[in-house]
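Can't paste images in this forum, so I'm doing it all in text. The chain is below; anyone willing to post the predicted C-alpha coordinates underneath?
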Amino acid sequence: MKKVIIFLGIVVVFISIFYVFSNNKKTIIGGDKDIHGCLGPAGYSWCEAKQLCIRPWEEYCTATVGKTVSFTCDAAKSIIATFYIGDDKLVDLKLSDGKNISVPRAISASGARYANQDESFVFWNKGDTAFITEGASSTMTFSNCVLK
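Text version of the structure:
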Protein backbone atom coordinates (compact mmCIF):
# COMPACT_ATOMS: atom_id res chain seq x y z
CA MET A 1 0.00 0.00 0.00
CA LYS A 2 2.85 2.38 0.87
CA LYS A 3 4.53 1.63 -2.46
CA VAL A 4 1.32 2.40 -4.37
CA ILE A 5 0.95 5.79 -2.63
CA ILE A 6 4.59 6.68 -3.32
CA PHE A 7 4.21 5.56 -6.96
CA LEU A 8 1.03 7.68 -7.39
CA GLY A 9 2.80 10.66 -5.79
CA ILE A 10 5.68 10.38 -8.25
CA VAL A 11 3.24 10.10 -11.19
CA VAL A 12 1.40 13.25 -10.01
CA VAL A 13 4.70 15.16 -9.74
CA PHE A 14 5.75 14.14 -13.27
CA ILE A 15 2.35 15.03 -14.72
CA SER A 16 2.51 18.43 -13.00
CA ILE A 17 6.01 19.11 -14.32
CA PHE A 18 4.97 18.04 -17.84
CA TYR A 19 1.89 20.33 -17.70
CA VAL A 20 3.92 23.36 -16.56
CA PHE A 21 6.57 22.98 -19.26
CA SER A 22 4.09 22.21 -22.05
CA ASN A 23 2.10 25.40 -21.25
CA ASN A 24 5.04 27.80 -21.09
CA LYS A 25 3.45 29.99 -23.79
CA LYS A 26 1.34 32.34 -21.68
CA THR A 27 -1.61 34.19 -23.14
CA ILE A 28 -2.27 37.56 -21.59
CA ILE A 29 -5.98 38.28 -21.57
CA GLY A 30 -6.62 41.61 -23.25
CA GLY A 31 -3.01 41.78 -24.46
CA ASP A 32 -3.84 41.42 -28.16
CA LYS A 33 -1.94 43.89 -30.30
CA ASP A 34 -2.52 44.58 -33.99
CA ILE A 35 0.18 44.64 -36.66
CA HIS A 36 1.18 48.18 -35.62
CA GLY A 37 1.49 47.26 -31.93
CA CYS A 38 -1.76 48.98 -30.93
CA LEU A 39 -3.51 47.47 -27.91
CA GLY A 40 -7.06 47.00 -29.26
CA PRO A 41 -8.69 45.78 -26.02
CA ALA A 42 -7.61 49.08 -24.41
CA GLY A 43 -9.25 51.03 -27.25
CA TYR A 44 -6.14 51.92 -29.25
CA SER A 45 -6.18 51.85 -33.04
CA TRP A 46 -3.64 52.85 -35.67
CA CYS A 47 -3.78 56.43 -36.95
CA GLU A 48 -2.11 56.45 -40.34
CA ALA A 49 -2.00 60.25 -40.46
CA LYS A 50 -0.07 60.54 -37.18
CA GLN A 51 1.78 57.23 -37.51
CA LEU A 52 0.90 56.19 -33.95
CA CYS A 53 -1.65 54.36 -31.83
CA ILE A 54 -4.46 56.55 -30.50
CA ARG A 55 -7.81 56.25 -28.77
CA PRO A 56 -10.19 57.90 -31.29
CA TRP A 57 -12.47 59.31 -28.59
CA GLU A 58 -9.49 61.04 -26.94
CA GLU A 59 -7.56 62.29 -29.96
CA TYR A 60 -8.44 63.25 -33.52
CA CYS A 61 -6.65 61.29 -36.27
CA THR A 62 -5.54 63.94 -38.73
CA ALA A 63 -2.33 64.95 -40.46
CA THR A 64 -3.19 68.61 -39.82
CA VAL A 65 -0.95 70.14 -37.18
CA GLY A 66 -3.05 71.25 -34.25
CA LYS A 67 -3.01 74.66 -32.57
CA THR A 68 -3.09 74.18 -28.80
CA VAL A 69 -4.42 76.85 -26.45
CA SER A 70 -5.05 76.93 -22.69
CA PHE A 71 -8.00 78.32 -20.81
CA THR A 72 -8.14 79.12 -17.09
CA CYS A 73 -11.58 78.67 -15.54
CA ASP A 74 -13.42 79.28 -12.27
CA ALA A 75 -12.82 76.90 -9.34
CA ALA A 76 -9.13 76.49 -10.32
CA LYS A 77 -10.09 74.42 -13.37
CA SER A 78 -8.43 74.52 -16.76
CA ILE A 79 -8.92 73.37 -20.34
CA ILE A 80 -6.23 72.63 -22.91
CA ALA A 81 -7.83 72.65 -26.36
CA THR A 82 -6.22 71.58 -29.63
CA PHE A 83 -7.91 72.95 -32.74
CA TYR A 84 -7.15 71.69 -36.26
CA ILE A 85 -7.32 74.74 -38.53
CA GLY A 86 -8.30 73.70 -42.06
CA ASP A 87 -9.59 70.33 -40.84
CA ASP A 88 -11.92 71.64 -38.17
CA LYS A 89 -14.04 68.53 -37.63
CA LEU A 90 -13.08 67.90 -34.01
CA VAL A 91 -11.36 69.50 -31.04
CA ASP A 92 -9.15 67.56 -28.60
CA LEU A 93 -9.65 68.58 -24.98
CA LYS A 94 -7.56 67.85 -21.90
CA LEU A 95 -9.43 68.87 -18.79
CA SER A 96 -8.00 69.52 -15.35
CA ASP A 97 -10.35 66.84 -13.94
CA GLY A 98 -8.29 64.24 -15.86
CA LYS A 99 -10.69 63.73 -18.76
CA ASN A 100 -9.30 63.61 -22.31
CA ILE A 101 -11.93 63.77 -25.03
CA SER A 102 -12.16 64.45 -28.75
CA VAL A 103 -15.44 66.21 -29.57
CA PRO A 104 -16.94 66.76 -33.05
CA ARG A 105 -17.89 70.20 -34.38
CA ALA A 106 -21.58 71.06 -33.98
CA ILE A 107 -23.88 73.73 -35.36
CA SER A 108 -23.75 77.10 -33.63
CA ALA A 109 -25.05 80.56 -34.38
CA SER A 110 -21.99 82.25 -32.96
CA GLY A 111 -18.54 81.04 -31.97
CA ALA A 112 -17.31 77.46 -32.19
CA ARG A 113 -19.42 74.73 -30.64
CA TYR A 114 -18.35 71.09 -30.23
CA ALA A 115 -20.69 68.42 -28.87
CA ASN A 116 -20.98 64.66 -28.64
CA GLN A 117 -23.93 63.01 -30.38
CA ASP A 118 -26.38 63.12 -27.47
CA GLU A 119 -25.27 66.63 -26.44
CA SER A 120 -24.33 65.37 -22.96
CA PHE A 121 -20.94 67.08 -23.41
CA VAL A 122 -20.67 70.50 -25.09
CA PHE A 123 -17.60 72.74 -25.42
CA TRP A 124 -18.24 76.34 -26.48
CA ASN A 125 -15.51 78.72 -27.61
CA LYS A 126 -15.96 82.31 -28.67
CA GLY A 127 -12.97 84.60 -29.01
CA ASP A 128 -10.86 84.32 -25.85
CA THR A 129 -13.57 82.62 -23.76
CA ALA A 130 -14.92 79.10 -23.37
CA PHE A 131 -17.14 76.93 -21.19
CA ILE A 132 -18.27 73.31 -20.92
CA THR A 133 -21.69 71.89 -20.10
CA GLU A 134 -22.23 68.25 -19.19
CA GLY A 135 -25.11 65.88 -18.50
CA ALA A 136 -28.74 65.76 -19.54
CA SER A 137 -29.44 68.98 -17.66
CA SER A 138 -26.51 70.79 -19.35
CA THR A 139 -24.80 71.66 -16.08
CA MET A 140 -21.93 74.08 -16.58
CA THR A 141 -18.89 72.20 -15.26
CA PHE A 142 -16.18 74.55 -16.57
CA SER A 143 -17.26 78.21 -16.40
CA ASN A 144 -15.80 81.63 -17.08
CA CYS A 145 -12.83 80.16 -18.93
CA VAL A 146 -10.44 82.71 -20.45
CA LEU A 147 -7.46 82.25 -22.75
CA LYS A 148 -4.11 82.23 -20.95
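Strands lie at 45-47, 52-54, 67-72, 78-83, 90-95, 100-106, 112-115, 121-126, 129-134, 139-147. Residues 14 and 20 are 10 Å apart (CA to CA).
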